[in-house]
Structure formats: C-alpha cells, structure tokens
C-alpha cells in the first residue's frame, strides 16, 4: 500500500485494487468507536484540502475504464482553469496528484476497472444500518 495516500482515499485505493484482482468487497458500517471529524487537525484545513485534491487526482488517473479519457480531460481542464485564475494552491495540488499517480503506477500499476466482476446486490437492514450485500456475479 503506497504511504502517499495518507489521510484520504487509502481505503478506496486498496478496495479498488482488490476488486480489480477479483476479490469481493462488502461494506458493513459497524460503529466501534466515535470519530470527531477534524478534531485533531483544526489548524490544518488548507493542508487537508491539498491532500484530498492531490489524492483524488491520483485515484482518478490510476483507475482505467471506459470513462478514463473524459476524466483525464476534466483534470487537464481544471488545471488550466486554476492556472488562468491564479489558484496556485490548486495548481500545485493537481500537479502533485499527477506526480503521485506516476509514482504509484510505476510501483503498483494502474487499476483496470473494465475487468471487474459485475454483481447484483440487495439492500438490507443490518443492525439498523442500510447496507448492500453481494448476491451473485453476473
């Protein structure tokens, strides 16, 4: 697992990677602790937004499927728009996301979502939470 995804999207990256390798993924939202969102990082809002955007760019570039060319175009247009409007912080985050993508891709490869199994699922209530459980592969 690349350490570069610290704080945002590391769970998504791992889940997508395992799914692309044929493993099933099930979400069971069981509360086992209380999380105070942003409680420990109150003075770091700007840095967290940077990390979130950087990791989002990297994940979008790592995942290949039929919408990939459109996502790349959207990222490039966002980069151009931010550069023209003087948003240096966002330009830096987008470029950092592209660099992170290149680093992770060279070490782990990209994630081919075109080959993931299509599944049918059912929504059920489990301990008061609505969740989706895999029923069968199509």
Characterise this structure.
The chain has 138 residues and is an alpha+beta fold. The chain has one domain (3-25, 38-114). Helices cover 49% and strands 15% of the residues. It has four helices and four strands, in the order ααβααβββ. A two-stranded parallel sheet has the order 1-2. It has a two-stranded antiparallel ribbon with strand order 3-4. The longest helix is centred in the last third of the chain and has 21 residues, at 88-108.
Produce a short descriptive summary.
The protein is of the alpha+beta class and 138 residues long.
Number of domains: 1
Tell me about the largest β-sheet: 2 strands, parallel
Placed side by side, the strands forming the largest sheet appear as: 1-2
Estimate what percentage of residues fall within beta strands: 15-25%
Average pLDDT score: 76
Q: Indicate the structural class.
A: alpha+beta
Termini separation comes to: 29 Å
Helix content: 40-55%
Order of helices and strands: HHEHHEEE
Features:
138 residues, 4 helices, single chain, two-stranded antiparallel sheet, alpha+beta, two-stranded parallel sheet
